[in-house]
Structure formats: C-alpha cells, structure tokens
Amino acid sequence: MPARAQRTVDEHRAEILAAIPAPEAVTVPLRDAGGYTLAAAARARVDGPAFDSSAMDGFAVHAADAALASREAPARLRVVADLPAGSGSDPALGPGEAARIMTGAAVPTDADAVVPLEHTIGGLDHTGEVEIVRRPALGANIRRAGEDVRAGAEILPAGVRLGTLQLAALASAGVTEVEVAARPRVAVISTGSELAPAGHALTRGHIPESNVPLLAGLAEQAGAIVVHTATVPDEVPALERALAAAGSARADVVITSGGVGPGAYEVVRIALDGPLSFVTVAMRPGRPQGFGRLPSGQLAFGLPGTPVGAAVSFEVFVRPALLALQGRAELQRPVLRLPAAVGWDARSGFRRYVPVAIDPSAAWAVRPAASDGHSSVVLATTDGFAVIPPDTVVRPGDLVDTILLGGLL
Ligand SMILES: Nc1nc2c(c(=O)[nH]1)N[C@H]1C(S)=C(S)[C@@H](COP(=O)(O)OP(=O)(O)OC[C@H]3O[C@@H](n4cnc5c(N)ncnc54)[C@H](O)[C@@H]3O)O[C@H]1N2
Ligand code: MOO
Question: What EC number(s) has UniProt assigned to this enzyme (predicted)?
Fold first, then answer.
C-alpha cells in the first residue's frame, strides 16, 4: 500500500475550505427563514417606531398646560379623544385639552408629552375631565419615530444565522422576506457489512447502525437538508448504487462513514480513491479521512466509521464546510477554556478530541464522558469535545480548550 500523506487538522480543513464554492442566494419569506444564513445584509423596511408612539397608558397633553401641576394644585384638562393602540386618528388638541391614550398608540401631532395614569386623577369615567398631579417634562413618555432604527439601517450583516431572536428583530423592522444562502443538500451513506439499520434483526457479527442518524442529524443542525440516506454493505456495487441515488436526489454533498481504514474490505477507499484523496490527519479519533469531489460534481467526505470518530470528524471538517457553503461568517463553534474535574492521560502522539461532559453547577468543569473514548454510547453524555495537544497528561484543575456543542445551551 502506498504511504499516505500525513497532515495537521488545520491543513486538512484548509484544503476542504478552499474547495467550497460561493453560496447560492435565494429569497425566502421571513416566516420560513429560520435556520438559514443571510446572503445579504438585512435592512429595516420601516422606521422603528414607525410613528411617535406612547410609552405609557395615560393622557397625551400639551406639556405647557400642566407646567404648574402638583398634587396640591392639579391641572384640570378636558378629555376630547380616546386613543387605543392601533387607532389611526390624530385628534386636534386645543389649549387645555388632552387625549386618553394607551401604550403603543400614535401620539397626536398636537401633543408634546404623555402623562402616565399614575400621575392623574379621573379621566377614565365619563366626566370628560382629568386632573394632572405632576408636571410632565417636554416629550415625556413619547417614543419618537425612528428612535430605535431608521428605515434602511442594517439590522444584521450577511453571514449570520437566522435564529428565533433574529427573526423577531427583522419582523419588528418590517422585513417580510430575506435573501439567504440555499441550504446544502446532503446525502449520508454508512458502509459496513456488519451494520443492521433500525428495525433489522441483529444476528451474530452484526451491530446496530448509528452513523446515519448521527451524521444526518448533525448535518441538519448545521443548516443542511438531508436528501438521501443509505446503509450499504462493504461491496463496491452497493456503494455505487447509493452514490447514484444521492446524485438522483440532487445532493450537493455526500458524507460516507466507514471503509477508509487500511484493512482488506475498505469499500469507500477502494471505490473512490482518485476522485477523493485519502489522508491521515494527526488527530485521534478521526485519523483516516477522505475528501474530494465525485465525478458527478458533489463534494464528498469519507469519514471513519467509529461513531465517535465520525462525530469528531463531522465537527472538525464537515460542519465548517457546510457552514462555508452557506456563507456563514463564523465557521467554528465557541472554544471555552474550562477546568478539568478529574485528571486523565491523553498521551497519544496526536491531538486528541475527547468527548467530555460539562458540569454547569461546578464551574463548568469537564470530565471525559466515558472511560473508553471509542464507545459510541459516550455520545449520550457528550456536551463538548476537549481538544488536548499531543502527549498531554491532564491534571485536575488544568484549563482545557473545549469545543462547546449546542446541547447545553
Ligand atoms: N491495522 C490498522 N487498523 C486500523 C487502523 C490502523 O491504522 N491500522 N486505524 C484504526 C482507526 S484509527 C480507525 S478510525 C478505523 C477506520 O476504519 P473505517 O473507517 O474503515 O471504519 P470501519 O472499519 O468500517 O468501522 C470501524 C468501527 O466502527 C463501527 N462502525 C462503522 N460504521 C458504523 C455505523 N454506521 N454505525 C455504528 N458503528 C459503525 C464498526 O463496526 C467498527 O467497529 O480503523 C482502525 N483500524
Ligand atoms: O482515527 Mo480513529 O477514528 O482514531 O479511531
């Protein structure tokens, strides 16, 4: 077997990112835009507030009419209009006149202050009069048109993911549709003659398949649409049929798991050597990696089959690529320096990515999620991956770089 190229994590990721094409922009209604990444800056369509609006339930007045008002000597004003929120009317207010007004209603053009209910007596009944017991400052309790944001102002730059808070902010700025990057279409193919997909009986030599739900779910969390999944045995024709089906499903990206090791039945490496380069990355898990472009044009990742290795490989290589395909400004998750709750020996000659549980009630201390880092069930309690430099023994209390996964937040 030819010697394989050795490279660092950063070198491999840089090669992947260099192959990522510019995102394709599409326009979608704001109500459907959750999870998409903005392809262009989103700007306010309207002033916020759109009109001078009342910040209090109370009375819109001429401030001068109540300039001497006090509890001992209230100013007495005639209530000539009633302005619930949503009212379109703009009543004229002569000297000595006030309008009852609710929070969020447009302040009459003639008024220059709103007196809150707490500083008034009466006015809610039908006497037609209200007493002001504290003098309002000029402009009091009026939120001026455009005070928060002006029409045309940038609310969010290109490259930002639209979460719920961002969608609400855009809605409040009158935005009804946004230009976003198309979601990458992803196919996930797991390989291994030992794999029994959910619902299939387990016979000797077979194990439950878990990388399809793992990688498909992670791809969706990274903003992709999963258009095809398959589990195939270690046979080249079966893999080729699955790749053809991924092509028919118009996948942009194909992610395979397994079949990249040095063994005898390494179906992905056998079938795709050439279009993909198979390399060894100085990391554990996730050492063997395949990446390239299939003859049909799709970007393809050949990830190792061990479920923890597949999860780490996705995090380190595939997720940044999927985000780059969406033009995302930030391709990395937050890396926190967190204290180790326990010591552990991470010596291996490679950078280690250790699945860790994080304890938010103990200074966010990290501990390996399981004693055996390769068992897939460690993923059940994994909150992050500690990134441990080569040949490191971690002692209790040491600060370790930890990639924070989404689950705790
Ligand atoms: N002689 C050597 N053997 C191995 C080496 C090596 O350098 N020399 N490297 C090891 C490393 S590191 C890795 S990683 C694996 C890479 O192997 P593959 O990517 O070909 O993975 P498989 O052999 O197909 O599977 C490995 C392991 O994971 C289980 N698996 C695979 N796919 C799934 C799935 N979809 N769901 C659940 N579990 C899965 C599989 O049953 C194996 O136990 O090679 C090492 N060997
Ligand atoms: O690279 Mo393998 O994923 O170390 O276990």
Answer: 2.10.1.1
